[in-house]
# Entry
Amino acid sequence: MKIPQLTKKPEKKTCHNVTWEDDYSWIHQKNILEVLKDSSKLLPEVKNYLVEENTYTEHHLKNTKNLQKKLFNEIKGRIKLDDESLHYIDKEYEYWTKTTSHGNYSIKLRKKIGTNDVEEIWNGDLEKEKIKTEYFGVGDLEVSFNDKYLAYSLDLKGSEYYTIYVRDIKTNNLITEKIEDTSGGITFSLDDKYIFYSKLDKHHRPRKIYRHKIGTSTKNDILIFEEKTEAFTVGISLSSDEKYFFINTSDHNTSEKYYFSVNEETPKPKLIRSREKGIIYSINSWDNYFYMHTNKDAEDFKIERCKDINAQKWETFIAPKEETLIGSLLFLNKWIVRSEVTNALDKIFVKNIETNKEEELIFTDESVYEAAVSHIQKDKNTDLIYIAYSTPKTQSRAYLYNLKTKEKKLVKEQIIPSGHDSKNYIVERLECKSHDGRKVPITITRHKDTPVDGSAHLLLYGYGSYGASMAASFSSTRLSLINRNIIWATAHIRGGMERGMKWWKEGKLLHKKNTFKDYIYSANFLINEKYTSKGKIIGMGGSAGGLLMGAVVNEVPDIFLGMVMAVPFVDCLTTNLDHSLPLTVGEFDEFGNAKNNKEHFDYIYSYAPYNNIKKIDYPHILITTSLSDNRVLFDEPAKFTAKLREYKTDNNLLLLKTEMNAGHGGKSGRDGAIEEIAFDYAFILKISEKN
# Structure
């Protein structure tokens, strides 16, 4: 089949006395944010190219159609389609969600405490059917404190412009004007007269918080907070004791908080602590104390508290620990529960408020796992919590745990209808030395029958940005590869926070290449340890993980059999130079400011995947993107693909698939998500010659 060709329209670009040529920059339209909201504004020539690439991809994977169907059925067969969440006991109602075998979206249910009269207050499939839209993204779903109203936000394009609706649950009628172009979050006032929301500006950044009186025109909405700094975005939340609203304004690296009483007739947010570059903090209040979670003088965070927020006399409540990430607090009347992360592993601690004694909560004998705790009810006068955990080989389990008696009762276990025996799998936690001696954790999951003699293919997953840590959790979808003797390995590389803030700092700005080197060293380590061999590794990463894939494939293409790059951030220099794009200015402390800093420019230019494509042999590559993606614009992977076609000297597959009705997270709905996974896995199995 004829290989798609994107027209070359060379443009000279100059910055800091460096000049380079970009043949495909013309596809980035000046009205790009309008295009994301309305695809009819896309240049016809660009649309034709994307369609041609989709046709080309379809042609080369047409012999995997049966395999895709088989994988879809496998993956869906491991999901209990008719399922219910744990119940949350509110003041008058119990609330929970469920899914059905025929539906793609969740249903929200409730019943009056002490009765069996179940009421359906939200059905995602019915809502989608009413609107008649292909993409259906639910942002937030909130019930008012008086249990009368349901507020929800919808994104019908995938571009993350959310419209807020409020309806009367009893009549099912909308009771206020819809609110457009919001970030999606909804917060009710305690008297249920108002909702608070954040509005998106022309650059798709939430920098204003409004209060809307339910039942009135949005023209009368009151602006209660505005962030003037372009890089900062805002949000609002309610304190645990429901006495205060907290406004958070932050970028990735610095935060600032304001508060106002829930009883204020006209909210006037008051500053808690002025922003300091590199200082992140959050605030909560409980039992006449304010609690601050902060990294000020505590790189991996600590928790302080004080009684008078105006006096600011903070005392240490949880002291910092070296390379141990101190998590936030869950409050009960008699207990405080908190989390820590050390070496990419979760720990949970419980403090008895009466005795002031704290101890670690031990609930499993497995060494590699992910865990979380949550409330079971609104009334905090209880000794009960939910503990949920999973491991890479053991499906999720939730326990009702009594903090006083230490008794645990299994209340929910993830059911795998097609069957699953954790004894058939082996999970290992390894460490490999990177280029500078730093030890990188690697989590490996493999079938017990998969040999460790270099013969196996291995999927190496990585991300390494924004301080995001990769969890050691269960994924039933991965079994479709693992059961076919493909080892799944996750490299916990720098740029995440698996080993604290230092792990993040060593993988960003002028240290970003540590992220790429950690991944490459992990790959070579796995080859040396005979988990796989050179040329048998499939790299996988999405978004900033796609930047990782693009950087390493330019550097060491020969160690890979193939790569799956999802919504990849591969034209990062162009994006960094454009301060009008939604995320750019908020990420200066993550990647740098190439436009205003020559050192940053030179560094980003030296690794940016699009700018560093070479005339060499590349492995098989599948690139996926979405037309309405607001975070990584579709033109980045499109340009990368076009240039790579021109430069690469091999005959390996290079495929670009663009979802024409989706956003950064891909298709909406359960089946849509499974279809995308099955498509990616079919590509992996095709190049690995497995089925």
The domain at 11-76+421-688 is CATH 3.40.50.1820 (Rossmann fold). The CA atoms of residues 208 and 226 lie 4 Å apart. The mean pLDDT is 96. The two ends are 24 Å apart (CA to CA).
